[in-house]
Amino acid sequence: MSRYDRYVLSQYLLFFGFFALILVAVFWINRAVSLFDWLIGDGQSVLAFLEISALSLPNLVRMVLPLAAFAATVWVTNRLNSESELTVLRATGSSPWQLARPAMAFGVLSAAMMSALSLFLLPASLAQMQLREAELSRSVSAKLLNAGNFLHPSAGITFFIGSIDPDGTLNNVFLTDQRDPSVEITYTSDRAYLVREDDMAHLILVDGLAQRKEAHNDRLSTTAFADFSYPLGDLSPARTMGARPLRNIPTLDLLRDRDEITQNEGHSAGAQAEELHLRFARAAVTFAVVMIGVSTLLLGGFSRFGIWKQVLVAFVLLILIEGMRGVVSEPVRDNAQMWPLIYLPAAIGVLISMIFLHLATRPQALSRLRPRRKQETAT
After folding, report:
1. Going by C-beta distance under 8 Å and a sequence separation of 6 or more, which residues neighbour residue 85?
2. Which of 118, 133, 136, 367 is packed most tightly, with the most Cβ within 10 A?
3. What is the model's pTM?
């Protein structure tokens, strides 16, 4: 690569990192608010919040990476044009294809990052997140260890702890079970302990009273007990893992074990084909949006008013390419043999960029496509 190519490529990478950081931060803050409310509100630790947040980052980066690459391409190319650097290079005989070489290299690097993210990091992070969320849903002890507040860990359940001793003893415990409309059971005890046996947690109530009220006759019966074990699994049923979502299945499994996945997890061949080829197509789309950005801006020459028209055209093309990705997915889900349609948006994007670069090499042909201004005739 020439010195110019290395300089422009470094600018692309610099602003790509900047835009990616800003976009990821914006999306992460929006995601972190709901995570914080779910985890910390249920009594989980800050470490659990940080772990789930870290596992969600690959998906956030996957969403913003094409946008960040497109924004960096447009920003740097526009700056080079406004500072007349592209004009000088054109005057020295550099063709639009040569001017686009740094963007091509940047597009390849962006596509490689997207490939690593989409093919390996994203499925692994989503699978690990599913496991951690299932573990957290079973961790009812963290939800209940909140003294001084009335808690509702499940519909029809009200739980209250007066205080918690340093050794973990729960004092002045109140528990009401109203899940059965025909009967309401209330437990009170002076002391209680949380005990875990294998994967099951139990609440051991000591020196307490159980009150059972039947709705059909308003009969109230009470039973005093010295100790009583209440299974906490009833308060927060464990989340069943079930079939893995397609996004969580490793790419190698989608390549080798399609029939087994269909048989054991119920995912159709079309859905598997769509997910598999979509992972590869994301990299191609990333390269396409970079080339659309640079080729569209190279259509215009130097102007004191900027090249905002070219920027607008590039942005519209980006929206069209992203919109096409949703259109081509449905036929592939219905028929796995239609998988080449997944690559159609990327192919169209690259084709458009090639046409624009070809037009940029022919200023005479390009000038004929532009509307002519009306010139005043001398009287």
Report:
1. none
2. 118
3. 0.74
Q: What is the largest CA-CA distance in the chain?
A: 113
Closest among 131, 130, 144, 128 to 201, alpha carbons compared: 144
Q: Which residues contact 18 (CB under 8 A, 6 or more apart)?
A: 72
Mean pLDDT lowest for which of 26-30, 198-202, 374-378?
A: 374-378
Buried (b) or exposed (e) across 37-63, using 16+ Cβ within 10 A? Answer: eebeebbbeeebbebbbebbebbbbbe
Say which residue the tokens 């590869």 belong to.
Answer: 280
Helix axes 269-298, 308-327, angle to 10 degrees: 170
**Pairwise CA distance, residues 151 & 339, whole Å:** 50
pLDDT of residue 375 exceeding 50, the answer is no
- pLDDT reported for residue 376: 40
Give SS3 for 370: coil
Nearest-5° Cα angle at 127, 124 to 130: 150
Residue at 185: amino acid letter: I
**Mean pLDDT, the chain, integer:** 83
Give the helix/strand (H/E) hosting 254.
helix 251-256
Cβ atoms 171, 181 nearer than 8 A: no
Residue 60 in 3-state DSSP?
helix
Instruction: Give the CA radius of gyration of the chain.
Output: 31
Q: What is the separation of C-alpha 49 from the centre of its chain, rounded to a whole number of angstroms? A: 16
